[in-house]
Amino acid sequence: MSKIAKKRKRLNIISNVYAFLVYALLYIPVAVMMVFSFNDQKYNYYWNGFTTQWYAKLFTNSTLVDSLIYSLIIAVLSTLISVFIGTIGALGLKRYEFKMKKFIDNMLYIPIIVPEIVLAVALLIIFLKVGVSMGMGTILIGHCTFCIPYAIVTIKGRISGDNETLEEASMDLGANRVQTLLRVTLPNIFPGVMSAAFLSFTMSFDDVVMSNMLAGAKQSTLPVLILSMNKTGVTPDVNALATIMVLIIVAAMILNNIIQGALHKRVK
Amino acid sequence: MNNPIISLEGVEKRFGSNLVVKKMNLEIAEGEFLTLLGPSGCGKTTTLRMIAGFEEASAGVIKVEGERIEDKEPFQRNVNTVFQNYALFPHMTVFNNVAYGLTIKKVPKPEIQERVMEMLRLVQLEGFEKRKPDELSGGQKQRVAIARALVNRPKVLLLDEPLGALDLKLRKQMQIELKRLQKKLGITFIYVTHDQEEALTMSDRIAVMHDGVLEQLDVPMEIYEHPKTKFVAGFIGESNIFDGKVTDKKDNVLTVQTEAGMMQVCGADFEVGEEMHVAIRPEYMDVSKTPVEGFDLPGTVKDFIYQGTVVKTALDIKNGQEIKYSRFEQDTDIAEGNQVYVYWRPEKAVAIKKSM
Amino acid sequence: MNNKKKKNMLPALAMAGPVSVWMILFVTIPMLYIIYISFMSRGVFGDVVYKFSTESYKTILDPTYFKVILKSLKAAAITTILCLLLGYPLAYIIAHKPKDTAAKLITLIMIPFWTNSLMRLNSWLLLFQTSGPINNFLVGTGIVKEPITFIYTDGLVLIGLITNMLPFAVLPLYSTIEKLDKSLIEASADLGASAATTFMRVTLPITFPGIFSAIILVFIPSLGIYTVTDMLGGGKILYIGNIIKNQFGAIRNWPLGAALSVLLIVITMLLIFIYTRFAKIEDMEVV
Fold first, then answer.
1. Quaternary structure (chain B) (predicted)?
2. Which of C114, C166, C244 lies at the smallest CB-CB distance from A202?
C-alpha cells in the first residue's frame, strides 16, 4: 500500500474512534438509565442489586400512570392541533402574500429562538392577569405555541418548488382548490407532515418548562413529576417506563425503515 | 519517446470489483496538447485524476518528468488542474482565487500582484479582480479557473471537460483561445473530453478510450482517416460499419462479403477468409441506379435529412441495417422508395481488424 | 373588482389565518406584556403595582444578580465552545461517510433525545454520586483517597449542558459541511495547499454560517435553561433561568422576572442581528 493510502487508513481509524467516543458520551446516560431500571432499591441512589420487579410493578404506581396518561393526552392533542394549524399555515404562508406576512414570519421564529422560560413566563402572567385557571388547557396552549413554528419550518422545507406546478396541473385538469389540496398537495407534503407530527409529539411529551410553569395544582405531566422526584430520588419504575418508551420509539423507527424499504422495492 | 514529460506504465484502476482503467501505457511529450477522448465511463477522467493525485492507481507506475509520483499528495505534484465545474472558491475574490497557489507557496506580495495581473490580462479578465465568483458568467468563471491554474507555471495542465457547461458558440470560441494559449505558453496540456469534434480541433494527439482501454493513440487526421478499431470508427465522425469476411484479395483490394452484400476496401494486412469490419464515411459513399462492378449493395431510399451543411439520405439495405450517405445538395433524380446501388472507391473505406 | 379581490384573499385567510391569530394571541401579546411588566414596580406583598419604575433593571445591575448573570453567560459560553470543538469534527466525519451511513449516524445522534432529558440528567447524577460508580472506580483503583464531590457542582452542570446541547451543534454543522463542494478541497490541494492549510483557508471560512447557526442554537437555550441546574445543581447552583423561575414562584417579584426575561430576549436578538449581518461568507484578504 502506498504511503498516502496508509496515511488515509490511519486517519480513518482515528476518526472512527473519535466518533465512537462522542457517541459513547451521548449514550452513557441512556445506558445508565436502563441499567438502573433493574436496581433493587426504593429510590435510585446507588446500585443495590438486580431485580426486574419494577417492570412488573410499573402500572401499580398510580401517580406514575396518571402522569403518563396526562402527558400522552396532551401530546396527542398538541400534535393534532399543531400539525393542523402548521400544515395549512405553511401552505398559506408559502403561497400567498398578504399585508402581515413578514410580521407573522418573524413571529414564528420567536418561539424557536427565544428561551422557553421567557415564553412560559409571558404566557403565565397573561393567563393570570386574564384570570384563566391553570390546567390542561393552559399547558396545551403553551405546547402548541412552540410546536406550531417547528411544524411550519419542517413542512415548509418539504414544500418543493414544483408543488405549485403540480397544483396548477391539477386545476388545469379540472379539480377545484379543495380537491387539489386533498388529492395533490397533501400527499405530496405528507413526509413533511409526518416529520412535523413526530417532532411535535416528542417535544410536547418531553416538555418540562411550559408544563411546569403553566400547570394546575392537581396533575403533573410525566417530566414535571420526574423533576419533583429528583430531590428525594427517582424510583426505578420511572427508569423502567423510560426504558420501555425509548425501546418502543426505536422499534417504531426500525419498522418504519423496513416498510419504506419494502415500498421502494415494490415500486421498482 | 525520449524524455516524455508524463508516462503511464501498466496503470490500472479498480473501484471495488470494477476495473475502470485497464493496463494503460501512455507517453506524453513535453509541450504537446494531448486529448483523452471517449464516451462517459470510459475511464478518461479517472486517468486524469490519477495523474493529478485525486485517485490512487491500483497498479502500474505514473511518472512526471521521469519521477514516480504515487507517493506524492496532489499538493506535492507539479501539475495543476482545471476542474469541470471550475471549483472557484466562493468566499474569495477573483484576484484571491487566482493568487491562491502563489499565496500557499509564500511568494512575496509584489510578485503575486504582478503575476496575477499578468494572468488576468492573458485571459482577458483585467478589471475583474474584486468580483466574486457568483458575479461571473460561465465563460468568465472558466477563464478564472484557467488563470488560477496557469499562474503557478506548471509543467503540465490537466483539464477535465472544462468547456462542457458552456453554450455552443462560446465553447467554440474558447476552444480556439485555449489552443492559442497553449501554443503561446508551451505548457503540456492533457485534455479530457467526450466531444470528438473538440478533440479533433484542438489536439496534437488524441488518445481514444473505451471501457478503460486505450484503443488508439494518434494524430487527429490518422484517427479520423484510419481508425484502427470498430469502436474508434464508430465514435469518431460518422461511419457506416459492416461485419464481414474477406472472399478475395487482388493488389491489396479486398472483396468482402457481408450480410448487407458485397463490397470492396483497401487493406494490405488482411488475408482471404479473415473476418473483419469495413467502415465507410457518409461523405465518401455514392449511389447509382444500376449495379456497380465489384459491389453488391442494394438499398431502398428511406428519407432525406436536411442538416444545413449537408443533406443525409438514409437507406434500408438487405439485412435490415440503415446506412446514410451525405451530399452537399439533395440528389434530385432519386425519390423515396427508389432502389439504388451503393458503392465507393475502395481506398476511401477503412478495413478494420476484428474486435474481440 | 372588489369581489375578485375578496375571492383571492379567502384561501390565504383560511390557511394562514389560524397560525397568525395564534401567534399574535400567544406570542406577540404576551411578549409585549412582559416588556410592559418589566417597567412596573413591585408591591410589598409581591403584587404588581402599575407604576412606572426602572427598579427591576437597576436590580439586575446589583452585584448579587449581576454575578449570577455573568456566571450564566460564562457557562453558556463554555458549553457553546465545547460543543463546537466536539461537534465540528464529528459533523465533519459524518459528512464524509457514504450517504446512507451518514443518515444512520445522524439518526443515532437523535435517539438519546427520544429518552426523557430529565432521566438522562438523573443518570449523570447517579454516575457521579459520592457513592456512585465513578467515585467507586477512582477510590478503588487508588487514584484518589477519598471520593470527589462531583454532584451539585458547576462542572457537572456543564457536562449536563454539553450532552444536552451537542446534537443542536452537530446538526447545523453537518448540514453546512455536507454541502461543501468536494471539488473545492481538491482544487485547494491541486494548488499546493496541505490538508491543514486547506482546512483553514477553504473549509472553515465556507462552513462559517453553519458554525454561527450552531452557536445560536446552543448558546441561547443554554442561557435560559433551568432544568439542568435543577437536576444536577441541587438548588445550590442558580443560573438566569432559575432566578427567573423563582421570581414567579415563591419569591414573587414579577417585574424583576420580567426584566431578566427582557434581558434574555435582548441578548437573543443581538445574536440574531449579528448572524443576519455577518454570517455571509467572508472574503479572505490576501494582499
1. The complex is composed of two ATP-binding proteins (PotA), two transmembrane proteins (PotB and PotC) and a solute-binding protein (PotD).
2. C114
How many CB atoms sit inside 10 A of residue B245's CB? 14
| The pLDDT value given to residue C80 | 96
Find all residues with CB under 8 Å of C279, minimum gap 6, and list them: C208, C209, C212, C213
For residue C62, give the DSSP letter.
S
What tens digit of pLDDT does each residue of B163-186 get?
988 888 989 989 999 999 999 999
C 119-138 residues inside an 8 A Cβ radius of A:
119-127, 129, 131-133
Please say if the pLDDT value at position A19 is more than 60.
Answer: yes
Assess if residue C86 is contained within a domain.
yes
What CATH number does residue C251 fall under?
Answer: 1.10.3720.10
pTM, rounded to two decimals: 0.83
Domain that holds residue C94: 60-278
Domain presence at residue C147: yes
Which run of H or E residues covers position B61?
A: strand B59-64
Alpha-carbon distance C173 to C91, whole Å? 6
Q: Which residues of B touch A2 (CB under 8 A)?
A: 56, 70-71
Q: Provide the number of structural domains found in chain C.
A: 1
Interface test with A, best of B12, B71, B75 (most A CBs within 10 A): B71
ipTM entry = 0.85
Can you give the pLDDT at residue A121?
Answer: 93
Q: Indicate whether C6 pLDDT > 60.
A: no
The residue-averaged pLDDT of B291-317 equals: 85
Q: Which residues of C touch B105 (CB under 8 A)?
A: 192
Report CB contact under 8 Å: B73, A4.
yes
What pLDDT score does C281 carry? 43
What ranges do the domains of chain B cover? 6-230, 238-353
CATH code reported for the domain at B6-230: 3.40.50.300
The nearest alpha carbon in chain A to C119 belongs to: A33
A232–chain C Cβ distance below 8 A for any pair:
no
C-alpha distances out from residue C1 to A95, A150, A177, Å: 22, 38, 21
DSSP letter for A37, please.
Answer: G
Helices (H), chain A: 3-35, 53-57, 62-95, 101-113, 116-130, 136-158, 162-172, 177-180, 186-206, 209-213, 222-229, 236-267
Q: Are B345 and B308 within 8 A, CB to CB?
A: no
Structural domains for chain A: 1-60+235-268 (no CATH), 62-233 (1.10.3720.10)
- Mean pLDDT confidence for B86-114: 93
- Among C115, C199, C248, most A C-beta atoms within 10 A, so best to mutate, is C115
- End-to-end alpha-carbon separation of chain A, Å? 40
Tens of pLDDT, residue by residue over B34-81, are 999 999 989 999 999 999 999 999 999 999 988 898 888 888 888 999
- State the cell numbers at A2: 502506498
The distance of C30 to chain A (nearest Cα, Å) reads 5
- Distance from C-alpha of A198 to C-alpha of C282, rounded to nearest angstrom: 37
Its CATH class, for the domain covering B238-353, is mainly beta
With an 8 Å Cβ cutoff, is B105 touching chain C?
yes
Q: Would you call B272 exposed, middle or buried from its count of C-beta atoms within 10 A (0-12, 13-18, 19+)?
A: exposed
